[in-house]
Amino acid sequence: MRRTSRYTAGPLIALLALAGCQDGVVSPVTSKFEAPGASSPAPMSLAPAGRPNLSLSGGLPDSTSADFVVGPNGGVFYTGNHAVVFPAQSICDPATSGYGPGTWDQPCAPLQTSLKVHAEVRHANGITSVDFTPSLRFVPSTNTSKWVWIVMYAPEAIGASTNLSDFNILWSSSLGGPTVDEAATDSSLRTYVDTNQGTSLRRIKHFTGYTLGAERDCTTDCSTPP
């Protein structure tokens, strides 16, 4: 098994050093970052400059579980064949931040201690899901270098040229549950697809779970909201 990680972290390293000195800072109220273009998945070449450059080579079981401990300094953490990238001071302290739709862009106090995160990964019928506990939200910012990103392994995307929607990353409130295309109302949450490396990447504002390859979108047609 081989995992390759090419992570361009110039701006992020500088951020880690700066943010590490800002313990207890409460994030300011921020307006939404509006990414260019529509909400549908786009080629990686259109991704914001602050996004991580991370390649994944697969090799691990499609269905697995993973645990990691993340603290104020952030880092890159693997969940099976996938990964989450946390800049420093990017996690809201769950003891005070609140959680749920309507809170994603509210200011919060960054986490100043270490926190254990558990991930469950499942793959079936061409759909991959990663579900995280505990529920968390992330410090809002218009600076793309301060965003939390999920990177999902999508080898079927290699060479794709037209229908990138097959590689969209949707939010799901439970493992295998209904999905929501959050980019439909917030273009900063758009998915970007690397058709050379076979990965999908997008900003995330919160846990619980994310699904790759699901066609259903409950933004408008689900009777029960997630």
Notes on the structure:
- This protein is 6% helix and 27% strand.
- The chain is mainly beta and 226 residues long.
- The strands form 2 sheets. It has a 6-stranded mixed beta sheet, with no helix packed on it. It has a 6-stranded antiparallel beta sheet with strand order 2-5-6-12-8-9, with no helix packed on it.
- The longest helix has 10 residues, at 10-19.
- The radius of gyration is 16 Å and the shape is globular.
- The protein starts with 9 loop residues before the first helix and ends in a 5-residue tail after the last helix.
- Residues 1-37 and 219-226 have low confidence and may be disordered.
How many E strands? 12
Largest β-sheet summary: 6 strands, mixed
Helix vs. strand class: mainly beta
Q: Trace the largest sheet across and list its strands.
A: 1-10-11-7-4-3
Residue fraction in strands: 25-35%
**Helix and strand element order:** HEEEEEEEEEEEEH
N-end to C-end Cα span? 36 Å
Instruction: Describe the global form.
Output: globular
Determine the fraction of residues in helical runs and give it as a percent range.
under 10%
Mean pLDDT: 82
Blueprint of the fold:
Layout lengths: L9 H10 L22 E2 L20 E7 L4 E5 L2 E5 L28 E10 L2 E7 L14 E6 L15 E4 L6 E2 L10 E4 L4 E6 L4 E4 L5 H4 L5
Parallel strand pairs: 1-10
Antiparallel strand pairs: 2-5, 3-4, 4-7, 5-6, 6-12, 7-11, 8-9, 8-12, 10-11
Kindly list the characteristics that best describe this protein:
226 residues, mainly beta, six-stranded mixed sheet, 12 strands
